[in-house]
Design goal:
By secondary structure, the chain is an alpha+beta fold. The protein has 15 helices and 13 strands. It has three domains: about 220 residues, Orthogonal Bundle (Triger factor/SurA peptide-binding fold), CATH 1.10.4030.10; about 100 residues, Chitinase A, domain 3 (Roll); about 100 residues, Chitinase A, domain 3 (Roll). The strands form four sheets. A four-stranded antiparallel sheet has the order 9-4-11-10, with helices on both faces. The two termini are about 25 Å apart.
């Protein structure tokens, strides 16, 4: 488990083709039992799997017999820990992992591995060369690993929630020692932080009136027995819920815009609201179920028509806002006046390569402090918005510093120490026999 946890911190990319290629060439030693945990025997082939995984990651395997034995003993100890946790998870009747969860995990793993081969033929050949006759056999092997991991992760999460894994704060020297160990193993990607003023085209007053009249007529029709879902599929302007008959599912208080939130949490199950106006348009809301902290609801959104002239007006306004910002006007003041409150206003520490191309391409050539845009932002409903962006921070890719990783290292070592204490209690009450010898 410690290896898995450190891999999370270091975000090590496993070179699966190298691992598969190593399977055939390195499993040459006759298998034998290296440890027994309870009534489960751990064969030496499990140690070889871990050694091959290390080779695939580019890690050096010692050739000196003494050093290699020490590494193998460390791997056996890790395998014993993993088996102890797995057995404990199996014994806990409150812990369940569904077949669908395992299937989803396997699908993700297979997809990640498959992308590293140029064709299905190459992938199949490598599977066969690695001792797996078919993809189905390989999926079965991965499914076993994923089920074990999901069970032990669920166990540890449960113990943490119950307060049975008590964090142990590491010392500064332990944190620095860990940083010295890992600092060269991962490069920090380029990151940016920025604020933005998002300007949404506004409809004409006549379009607002027409939208309200349509919403009100639908509200009356539903009150008189018309089918809510059918009307949502025909009229709703919300692309995320329209095809589902307006279904929004469960949501907590504060997730929706204030006017919508206030009405939804004030309705009794089954009740339907008259048109509720938000910046998106007019909503007809029906609450289907209500719990103390969340409701399940559906809605029909009638959005006023946005004309080409409305879009042009918004673009001109965005140009003016950008010009004012470049001349030194307060970005906060401009945001207070013009920013659409339903849009994200601030992003901190975002990986540059993870941003949509329109942001990435605009940020790539400029430095921190620049005013960027207006950027034209297409929306899922085929509308458009405009963003004026202040690039507050831009940090090039490079090695992490101790200060950047300090909090993660503290959490990592604290969690590991808590798990070590728990594992020690499991070892004390479980039969464990280590049989790996020189």
């Amino acid at each position: 488990m410690r290896t898995t946890l450190r891999a999370i911190l270091l975000v090590l990319a496993v070179a699966w083709p190298g691992l598969l290629a190593a399977q055939e060439s390195n499993f040459t030693e006759v298998d034998h039992i290296v440890a027994v945990v309870g009534n489960v025997a751990i064969p030496f082939s499990r140690v070889q799997e871990q050694l091959n995984l290390m080779r695939a990651r580019g890690q050096t395997i010692p050739t000196d017999s003494t050093a290699l034995l020490q590494l193998e003993q460390s791997i056996v100890s890790q395998l014993v820990d993993d088996e102890l946790l797995y057995q404990q998870a199996q014994a806990d009747t409150s812990i369940h992992v569904s077949d669908q969860e395992v299937q989803d995990a396997v699908d993700r793993a297979i997809h990640q591995i498959r992308t590293q081969f140029s064709s299905d033929v190459d992938f199949q050949r490598q599977l066969q060369a690695s001792g797996f006759g078919t993809l189905a056999e390989y999926r079965g092997w991965i499914a076993d690993q994923q089920r074990r991991d999901l069970l032990t992760q669920t166990l540890l999460q449960k113990l943490k929630q119950k307060g049975e894994l008590k964090p142990v704060a590491p010392t500064d020297s332990e944190m620095h020692a860990f940083f010295d160990q890992v600092k060269g193993q991962q490069t920090r990607p380029a990151i940016v932080s920025f604020r933005q003023i998002v300007i949404r085209p506004r409809p004409d007053s006549l379009a607002v009136v027409k939208a309200y009249e349509l919403a009100d007529s639908l509200y009356i029709a539903i009150k008189n027995g018309a089918d809510f879902a059918s009307l949502a599929k025909r009229y709703s302007a919300d692309p995320g819920s329209r095809d589902q008959g307006g279904e929004l599912g469960y949501f907590r208080r504060g997730l929706m815009v204030p006017a919508f939130d206030r009405v939804a949490f004030g309705l009794k199950p089954g009740a339907i609201s008259p048109p509720v106006e938000t910046s998106f348009g007019f909503h007809i809301i029906q609450v289907e179920r209500a719990d103390p902290s969340e409701v399940e609801a559906r809605h029909i959104l009638i959005a006023p028509t946005i004309t080409a002239a409305n879009v042009q007006a918004a673009e001109r306004l965005a140009d003016s806002v950008a010009a004012l910002a470049r001349r030194g006007a307060s970005f906060d003041s401009l945001a207070h006046l013009y920013h659409d409150p339903t849009a994200q206003a601030f992003a901190e520490g975002v990986v540059l390569d993870s941003l949509p191309p329109i942001y990435h391409d605009a940020f790539d050539p400029v430095q921190a402090g620049a005013i960027v845009g207006p950027l034209r932002l297409p929306q899922p409903d085929s509308s458009v918005q405009f963003a004026v962006v202040h690039l507050e921070e831009k940090r090039a890719a490079g090695q992490y510093t101790f200060d950047e990783l300090k909090d993660k290292i503290r959490d990592q070592l604290s969690t590991e120490a808590a798990e070590r204490t728990y594992l020690d209690t499991l070892r004390a009450r479980t039969y464990v026999d280590i049989r790996l010898t020189p």
